[in-house]
Amino acid sequence: MGRFIPLSKPAEEAHVPSPVLTKTDFVRRYEAGEFGNHAPTWGTLQEWLDRDWGTPDQLYHIRNRVKGGLTWYDVPIRRVVSAWSKASKIYGAYNLYISAMAPTEKTLFQGEVQRGLHGLDLYYSTVVATMREALSKQAHSCYGIIALTLLRRFLCPNSLDWLMCLLETYPDHVVEFSTYSCQWGTLPGFNTVFWEVRKY
Questions:
Q1: pTM for the complete prediction?
Q2: Residue 13 falls inside a structural domain
Q3: Number of domains in the chain
């Protein structure tokens, strides 16, 4: 499970992770599995070409190490190389990485959560779409017990426990997540992937 430190570990033995201050730093730590369940990810085109994962109909996602940068969704396997080439001309290959597309059609709930003055602050959507699209189409905000109730309703126990650990381990950070009607990601037993952990 990457470098994540269980909260049950005695404080004197625990290593406190450094804050996530840049997108580049985040991606490096994300690829290493520090933040838990995530989409299968390859740091370079060559790593993706050498992959041993997925089926011929799996779609992929060209992602960016640049904050707010463009992203290329739903790329069929036969077009990954050309999409990577196009994206590289804009940002440079060193700023790109590839992830498997999550099962967007099975989206239940997704958004951003952080600890605030009234407990948890949650900004979320139930629109069945990628997160950027869903939050731009219809989003809601809530906090406290209402936010916790919604998270308990949609996230499986493993996912909810992990989210709470992330919020405790990375104080003053926002956690982006998507929850699906099936288990999916790099870890078994989770219906939620954690897309980003960043200091706000």
A1: 0.89
A2: no
A3: 2
What is the reported pLDDT for 14?
Answer: 58
Does residue 109 sit in helix, strand or coil? strand
In whole angstroms, give the CA distance from residue 136 to residue 139: 7
pLDDT digits (tens, 9 = 90+) for 95-134: 999 999 999 999 999 999 999 988 999 999 999 999 999 9
Q: Is 173 helix (H, G, I), strand (E, B) or coil?
A: strand
For 125, the domain range is: 104-199
Q: Are 69 and 95 in contact (CB under 8 A)?
A: yes
Strand partners, 75: 60
The sheet carrying 72-76 orders its strands as: 41-42, 96-100, 59-64, 72-76
Do 94 and 108 belong together in one domain?
no
Residues 6+ apart with CB under 8 A from 192: 37, 155, 156, 159, 162, 163, 177, 178, 179, 180, 185
The percent of residues above 70 in pLDDT, for the chain, comes to 92
